[in-house]
Structures are given as structure tokens and as C-alpha cells.
Amino acid sequence: MRSRLGTRAAIATASVLAAVSTAHADFWSDAAAPYKGATIRGVSESTPPSNYVKDVLGPAFTEATGINVEFEATSWDQMYDKAIKDMEAKTGIYDFVYIEQDIIYSYLARDFLVNISQALKDDPKLASPDFKADNFTTFINYFKNADGDVFGVPMEAFVKVYLYRKDLFEDPANKEAFKAKYGYDLAPAKDHKQYRDIAEFFTQWGKDNDQEVWGSTVQAHTGHPASWYEFFESVDPTFGVYNWGINPDGWSASEANGGAMNSAKAKAALEYWLGLLKFAPPESTSSTWDEVAASFAAGRAAQGLVYGENAAWIATNADKSNVVGKVGVALPPLEDGVLQEVEAGKGYIGYYDGGAFGIPYSSKNQQAALLFLQYIGQASVQADWAVAGSRITHQATYDDPKVKEMDAKTDGYFTLMKNDGKLFAGAPAYPFHAQVREATAPFFYEAITGALSPSDALDKMAEAAEAELKNLGYRK
Amino acid sequence: MRSTTIGWLMLAPTLLILTVFGVVPFVYVLVVGFTDWNAFAADPTAHFAGVENYRRLVFDGQFLNSLWKTLWFAIFAVVSQVVLGYFLAQLLMKDIPFKGFFRTVHTLPLMVAPIAVGATWRLLTVPGLGPLPYYLERWFGIEYRLGTYADQAFLTTIIMDVWHWTPLVTLTMLAGLASMPKEPFEQAQIDGANKLQIFWHITLPMLKPTILATVFIRMMDALRTVDEVWMLTGGGPGAATRYVGLHIWRVVFPKTDYGYGAAMSLLTLYLTIVMCWLLYAALVARRELPKAE
Hints:
The complex is a heterodimer. By secondary structure, chain A is of the alpha/beta class. Chain A has two domains: 226 residues, Periplasmic binding protein-like II (D-Maltodextrin-Binding Protein, domain 2, 3-Layer(aba) Sandwich); 192 residues, Periplasmic binding protein-like II (D-Maltodextrin-Binding Protein, domain 2), CATH 3.40.190.10. Helices cover 47% and strands 10% of the residues of chain A. Chain A is globular. Chain A starts with a helix and ends with a helix. Chain B is mainly alpha-helical. Chain B folds into two domains: 31 residues, no CATH class; 198 residues, Orthogonal Bundle (MetI-like fold), CATH 1.10.3720.10. Chain B is built from twelve helices and no strands. In chain B, helix 9 packs antiparallel against helix 12 and helix 11 packs antiparallel against helix 12. The longest helix of chain B is centred in the N-terminal third of the chain and has 33 residues. Chains A and B meet through helix 4 and helix 19 of A and loops of B.
């Protein structure tokens, strides 16, 4: 297995090198000549797209430039811990760091990052002719400041989609039994009532057929922020509560003060989401995003909201997934009126996730890191990366034959992202992202365990959010 | 005079290391604890906040709850380890088959990093994957859900700690038992003392210094446990296993509330010292009062 992976990485590296070298053979070696032999260090979350950088793009860059890349792919918590400590203390350990879309506003507020646009203007010799900000999808806008300058080169972007088991949904016996019980056709859910019915139906189906299949995944870890994120980024918006229910006009969270964190819609959303737990695999209250993907890939759930970075391997990698060829992709179920609101530009239906690599000001190898970021931002490396990590950051990548082939295997995941990506959004532009999350999460976990009712939990969360915002100096 | 200088010179490297890695960070934390420093506040610079952080701590239900849970965790874990460690040490004092093999295997958990212990126990206990929930349900009908039931999570963290650290207690008890003179035991047997009397009047008093040292070391370790529990439960479900070390980590790192987190650290250190002093006073000092002539 290990040697097979090594062979795959070597083949991928060779193909990247071939693609890049045909484009601009001399630029990389010429521009990198002053930095040859230097080592740049980066830290990222261990995800399929990051691991592709570690195994393929890093070695290819070293081959092309003579600059070594030490790439640390670690857990989400550790990645933040290390990157923030390094930038806060200005130790200069890392030359590039992963910036998840939701943390960029905090980093910009602290001036942690190098202005990439300005750096390339200041030193045109370092500007690759194959790196153009215009090639990127609109996702790059999340990493720009008010002046339009880029502070991070997008390396992954995907939407959190509704995955379902096509084999179960299309089984004639299941269709017949479902219609007999619920009075309408079994199909991917369009609204929350349908989603709940389907979850209930397949949970019972699993019991009746003595199979370990449940109705829905629920990312409901009771001690990890993953559960908080699933609710606020992927469930709350489908009920019409956006931006965590925080009103930037006065930074209020409670309904009494003009926020919506504890609004009737939010309470209905939490009640619905918690209600799915009885139709979810038993590991759900210990599941983060990784375990949810693993549960779905193991065939333990009939449907679920799954981060897009996992869609490709779940649908195609038989070494890791039991549901290859059985995966359907759809938009998340919505409450009435939400789609109209979103199409009118008033909100979003789910999470447009992703991240970029940025250069900390404290980096001691900023020029070499700048070259690396442009290298991974070239058009020529995007298609293979998209196939390996189901991420797309360039508009043209959608039309690449390799991506189209993968699109067919994933039931049109990339097409959905291309056509309906505009309905999704990243996290709100809050510089206090982690602070409010940490202040409110304990009450949220207690709602999952049942120690607090959904209504009480959201009331306490709104109160805690406002107290934290006041403590941080945002709310007066 | 000359020997004093040489003595100081020989101590210098240790003093230097203690100063750099002990005193300086302590003073730094002490200073930060009196500021309102949060890296992502509207004003991210540190300002002197007086005793405001300490005032907040006294009314912080989450912090007090984590302290309380930590105390219970430490008491249950350490008492279990001492009792179990004593009996295992007694067993290893006897001539039993495969004693060497058992002693080696028994010591293995000590060599595993806490984070790896947490990961191992997570693999053992996650429903749908781990064998523990599967067999508990199949054999005993117990629905074991670490992410759902607070009491199960609390108990599991104690069992994990006992599994990890009992070997240390066994080894120290073994050393204590092996160093005891035989004469008092032989004399007691001649005088007709039964096993309980020998244990109570001879073994326990002679083993007391070993037990005390072990209890102090393990108690301090248990009070600052983080890695294993972070990996196993993340502090959940809810706040059921959010012990004080983990709580401080969440406040200082993900929340970047450096000033408040530093104050929490200092208060916890102070409470740990007070607790150890009380324990020492209760077990030792009281009996060392000068006796009346």
C-alpha cells in the first residue's frame, strides 16, 4: 500500500513537472536562483488537498527550483495552534501557513500576513507569468482586503453538500415502501420534513434488514467545534438564519437586541438537527468532519451533509470507501422561502469551505515562499489536484477533461459546485471568529447531550456571545 | 570559601536552566495574568487590568466546574492507582510464574506518550469502530456512548489514567516493599499478629514515605492532565471531562484570551500547592508535632 502510494505520488509529481515545464521552463529556475538550497516550511490541516501539496506539488517545486519544502500536515486544532503562536510571537518558523476562509479576517485584523499583490509588484522578477489572480474563482475574493489586494493563494475550495446513497434511494422495494408509508416519492430531500422522513425510513430499514445503516450522518461531537460549525454553517442557514445570527449593527446576537442567534427560526433549526440524532449512527456524538466522511464512506448512513473535500474519495476510491458508484449529490434541504431569499442576495444555503496559503510577515524566506505560492496557483497544476482532492480554485479547471471524468463519477459534484456554488458562502467576516465560537460552544454541547433544551441553549449562547463581544471591545 | 565557589559553579548550569525555563516563564505568566491581553480583541494590545481577571474567575461557573471535576478525577484516579499499584506490587514480591514477563508488559503503558494513549483509547471506545462499545452492548446490554453520556465519559477517563499510570505506582511500591527489613515482619509473626494487623501496624507505616511521594507526584500529574482527555473526549460530552488543564488550553489557545488564561493558570497552580500542603499536613505534619516529654 505504502509503495503504491509512493508510486502514485511519483507519477503525479512527474506529470506536474511535465505540465509545468512545457509552460514556462526557465522562469522557475531563473527566479529561484538566489534562493536555491533554501528551505521553506509550511503548516496545514491534513486533508486530501493538503496531502497532495505535501506529496506532489512540494517535491515538484523543489525539482523545478532547488528550494526545499518542509510541509507539516497536522490536525485542524494543531494547525491553528502552531500557526497563530508562530505569527503572534513572530518566531518565523513558518514561511507559509494555511488560512481557512473563516480565520482570514482575524489574521488581516492583526496584520499577520504579507500582501502578496504588493510583494509581486515590488519585486516583478518574482512574478510568474503563469500566475494570475483572474484565473481563480470568486473564492479568491475572501482573501482580499478592501483594496483588492490578495493575501492568500486559494489552495482548496468546496461546498458542503448533501450526499445520499443512490443504491438505497433507487431500490424499487425501498421506493415502494417509502411511498406507502409517507405518501410521496422517495427522492433526495428538498425540505427538512422530507429529510427527516427519509432518515427515519432508512434507520428502520437498517433494523429490519439487520444492517448497520442509519438514516443520516450528524456531525455532533460533544467536545469539538465541528458540531458547532455544522449547525451554524450548514443547518442554521437552511432555516434562514445567516452569519451565525449575529447582527453586525451593534454586534448583537440575541433577538431582544436585534440579533437572530436565539430567534424562533434558529430554535426550530436546532430542534430539527438534534432530532436527527436518533436516526444517526451511534458514533455521531463523537464525530467531527473526518468521522462523518468515514461513516458515510463505510456505508453506515443513507444521507448526510458532507464536506466536499471528501466527495471524490468517497465516490471513487475503493481502497477507502464501501460506497463507490453509489453516491448521489444534491443541494441541502431548505425551509420554504430560503432559496428565494438567497437568490435575492439575502443569505446562503450552506458552507463554501476552503482555504489558502499565505505568508506570515515573520517568515524569513518570504521571496521563496512567494514563488511556492505562485507555483501551486498555476493553471497547469490544477486539474490533477482537483481530481486528487475534489477541490477547485480556478474557473477553467471545471472544463478540464480529467475533472469532467471525475465529475461523472461523483454524480456531478463539480457541476453542482460550478452552477450552484453561488448559493453557498464562507464564514462571515468576523475577526472574533474563534472567540465567539469558544464562548458559546459549551452551551451548544450541552444541547447535544440533552442537558439543555434547544431553546435554553440558544438563549444562553446569545447571551454568552454578546458578553464575549463586549469583553473583546466590539460591542459597546 | 573555595569549596563554596566551586559548589556554586557546579550548580550554575542547573540554576541557569531553572531560571530560564522555570522562573522567567512563571514571572511572564504572572505579569500577563494582570493584563486584558487577547490577540483578537478590538484592541489586541495588552493593558494592565489589575485584579479584574481574578475577580472574573471567582464568578466563572465554567472554570469552577472544571476545577471541581478535575478534583474528583484526580481523587478517583490516584486512589485507584495507589490501591491497585499496592496489590500488584505485593503480587510481584511473590514468586509467581512469568513474573519477569508480567512486569515488563505491565510497565509498557508508561512508555506510551499521553497523546497516543488518548488515541488508542479513542479507537477502543468509539461506537461503530471500537470493540468496547460493541462487546458491552452484546454481552451486557450496556449502551456505551462516550460522546453522549457524561458519567461514562468521566469513568472512562479515570480508567484510562489508571491504565496509563498504575505501572508507575506499582514500581515505586515495589521499590518500597523490597527495601523493607524482614525482622519486624518476622517478629510480628512470632508474636501472633494476623495479616491485617501486620499490614496496618508495620507495612503501612513503613511504606508511608513511598505512598506519600507517589500520591504527590500522581496528584499533581492528574490535576494537570490534558493530552489524553483532549484526544479521547475533547472535554465532552458537554463539560463532563473538561478538566482544568484542558479548559485553560481552550481559553489560552483557540480563544487566545492570554490574560484571563494566565490568571487561570496561576490560580490553579496556587490551589494545587494549597491542596498538596493540606494533604501533607493531614498525613504527615500532624504526627510530627513535638511530643510531650
